[in-house]
Amino acid sequence: MAVNKPNEWSELREWLAARIVYADLTDFAEADRGRLARALTAVMSALGDGPGGDRGDRGDSGDGGDSGAAVEVVRGELGRGGEARADDVLRTHLAIALAARTADVRGIGPDGALVVANARQWAECRELVEEIIALSPHPELIAFATGLRGRLVEARRWRWVEPDVWTAAVVGLAVLVLPFVGAAIGSAVVTVAGVAVGGALVFGFVMAHRRRGWAVDPGR
Fold first, then answer.
1. Which of 112, 180, 188, 214 is the most exposed place for a label (fewest CB within 10 A)?
2. What torsion do the CA atoms of 38, 43, 48, 52 make, to the nearest 10 degrees?
3. Is 159 exposed, middle or buried (0-12, 13-18, 19+ CB in 10 A)?
4. Measured between alpha carbons, how far is residue 157 from residues 130, 207, 212, 213 in Å?
5. What's the distance, Cα to Cα, between the start and end of the chain in Å?
6. Contact yes or no for 4/56 (Cβ under 8 A)
7. Tens digits of residue pLDDT in 6-39
8. What is the pLDDT of residue 195?
9. CA 196 to CA 214: how far, in whole Å?
10. Where do the domains of the chain lie?
11. Of 71, 92, 96, 98, whose CA–CA distance to 138 is shortest?
12. HEC sequence for 102-127
């Protein structure tokens, strides 16, 4: 689904773009200038200031975009090592690329919100969030990651799905009747079996009517 209206990804992209560090490259050694320039180009591309960055053209599949490539580029430049000041800038830019990636791995709901729709998206998003926090970038980026982590916790909670009346009635009747039949005929074996079967029915009933938060409310 193409999203042609203001949405959460557009807002996040603008917010992240405002946190890019435009360092004066003349203040750095030649090797660090190259690292910073390559990282900046990758991050700008991931945020839509370069080719392939417009989420609206990619639909809601939760795949694609330049954010994954940007993460690898910036991570690689940070791994090269260099002056501490340059590494600080690169850590911020890596956190920005990772934050952009959290948008790409999620889908876009009908109202334009970024949503986690399945376990794969949840797991990848959680990994990205933890990496952002581990980088200890700007406090605002840490706050973003912490907030998203809270949303992920809610999305993974089990939630009760209201069963239909007839299913609930059949299970309830079976739980009550089976032990009663055993007691009525004076058979301990039938009574115990009835209790066991009733317990199994209740367990199966509960398991069949619980869902992860992302399946019940994909807007989380």
1. 188
2. 60
3. middle
4. 19, 14, 6, 5
5. 18
6. yes
7. 578 888 989 999 999 998 999 999 999 999 999 9
8. 61
9. 33
10. 8-156, 160-216
11. 92
12. HHHHCEECCCCCEECCCHHHHHHHHH
Q: Where are the beta strands (DSSP E) in the chain?
A: 107-108, 114-115, 158-160, 210-212
Q: Which of 207, 111, 210, 108 minimizes the C-alpha distance to 156?
A: 210
Contact 85, 28 (CB under 8 A): yes
Backbone angles phi, psi at 108, to 5 degrees: -115, 125
Distance CA 148, CA 136 (A): 16
- Beta partners for residue 107, in sequence order: 115
**What DSSP assignment string belongs to 160-187?**
E-PPPHHHHHHHHHHHHHHHHHHHHTT-
Specify the residue for token string 């603008």: 14
